[in-house]
Amino acid sequence: MFVVDSMVQVPDHKADDLIDIYRKRSRLVDQADGFISFQLLQNDRKPGELTVHLEWESKEAYLNWARSEQFKKIHELEKQYPDQELQGIVPKVSKYEVVAT
Description:
With 101 residues, this protein is α+β, with helices and mostly antiparallel strands.
């Protein structure tokens, strides 16, 4: 299994706005070959720290998704957030190979 986490830091007063955006997400990734799950995580001590957690069957499945037109489409939509504070979000991406369960 391969895991990709994308952590963003937004002002605490914007956390609920970003959560709402993800609750209404396109779900295009859900249809990708090798996709297992999506979760949006909120730090319990820092409300403005949110992490998108994606699980994939393999690194290859993730890379195929990351090179896809659907991936490009989703990330273009993110640049069009109506809120200027959310438009400038730059995630810290971490990728992991699951080596034991």
